[in-house]
Design goal:
By secondary structure, the protein is α/β, with parallel strands linked by helices. It has a domain of 221 residues: Aldolase class I (TIM Barrel). The chain is 30% helix and 17% strand. It has ten helices and twelve strands. It has a twelve-stranded mixed beta sheet with strand order 7-8-9-6-5-4-3-2-1-10-11-12. A hairpin with a 5-residue loop joins strand 8 and strand 9. Helix 2 runs parallel beside helix 3 and helix 3 runs parallel beside helix 5. It is globular.
Length: 329
């Protein structure tokens, strides 16, 4: 069966956040101040994730991305990926990580059945990386994690950089050279209004057109065809074949019209859009004896009311009530 919304968009992609914890405090995501995490008993248990994944797969979702917070800080994530792989509920199993713990876990993730990996890397300069992530000395560990992932057979690793004007927009060339030397997939992401410190405004956004203009100064770019209408990135390859680059531009070039995604937060809420004003509880259904059919019916109802778009560019836009670390990427 196919799960569709009221705009006839097929919902096929699932983002599952397995924790709201993270060992970084990136400026575009978390507050610099101490935060109260969701109480541990509010987080979904692994059996609850498994049950929910079975229900969602039966509704026609066939791609899953495991996110956080930082998913690798939660014990058992490798076992969860192995369970997903064993039961073959999804055609594609991916994970997004900040890379801090990746060096010691890459081989286990590959052995567990992980297909694809995205690593967040917002600066190649150690001191700047510390400022962006509000950590100390973490860049070397992330770079080692990328190397370990490639060695484990998770290549080509996708490296994600959120470009923020005044923070790291002068490193686009450096990222390109980094990717070409290692034959990585480099993805540049526009800064979105999901930060806890509320520093976002349009002057901080480096739009896709500006990023693309800089990339074209490096070498001739060949535009790549979309693999699916719902693909988030504009994709290019350098003419010499050394690297692929992508630009994810939700602010300047929204792709809402082909959105195929829903998100499950670590505390068991469904969000139909990254920028939703509301989320919808499933944890209560999971814990209060609801049958799978009832949970599926509730999901279908929620998806029918999926927003047409995120409204970032509208005068009445209101940022979501939860930041990226709580929503899941």
């Amino acid at each position: 069966m196919a799960l569709t919304d009221s705009f006839n968009r097929a919902i096929t992609d699932l983002r599952v956040s397995v924790t709201d914890r993270c060992n970084f405090r990136c400026i575009y995501c978390r507050s610099a101040e101490p935060e109260n995490y969701v109480p541990g008993n509010h987080l979904l248990t692994w059996p609850e994730y498994q049950r929910l994944c079975r229900v969602l797969a039966a509704l026609g979702l066939h791609k899953i991305r495991v996110t956080g917070g930082e998913p690798l800080v939660r014990p058992g994530v490798e076992d969860f990926i192995q369970w997903l792989s064993k039961h073959r509920l999804f055609d594609d199993i991916a994970l997004t990580t900040n890379g801090f713990s990746l060096a010691e876990k890459a081989e286990r993730l590959k052995a567990a059945g992980l297909h694809r990996l995205n690593v967040s890397l917002d600066s190649l300069k150690p001191e700047r990386f510390d400022r962006i992530t509000r950590t100390r000395g973490a860049l070397a560990r992330v770079l080692a994690g990328i190397e370990a992932a490639e060695a484990a057979g998770l290549a080509p690793v996708k490296v994600n950089a959120v470009i923020v004007r005044g923070f790291n927009d002068d490193e686009i060339f450096d990222f390109v050279h980094f990717a070409r030397a290692r034959r990585l997939v480099m993805r540049f992401i526009e800064f979105m209004p999901l930060d806890a410190d509320h520093i976002w405004d349009r002057t901080c956004v480096v739009p896709a057109a500006e990023i693309l203009a800089q990339l074209r100064q490096v070498d001739h770019l060949v535009e790549l065809p979309r693999q699916a209408a719902s693909e988030t990135a504009l994709r290019y390859r350098f003419a010499d074949g050394s690297a692929e680059v992508g630009i994810v531009a939700p602010v300047s070039i929204p792709f809402c019209g082909h959105c195929s995604r829903i998100r499950v937060t670590a505390d068991g809420k469904i969000r139909t859009c990254l920028f939703s004003a509301l989320d919808h509880d499933l944890r209560g259904l999971l814990r209060n004896g609801a049958a799978d059919a009832s949970i599926a019916a509730r999901i279908e109802e929620i998806v029918r009311h999926k927003e047409e778009g995120h409204r970032i560019n509208e005068p009445d836009f209101v940022p979501p009530n939860r930041t990226m670390v709580f929503i899941g990427g």
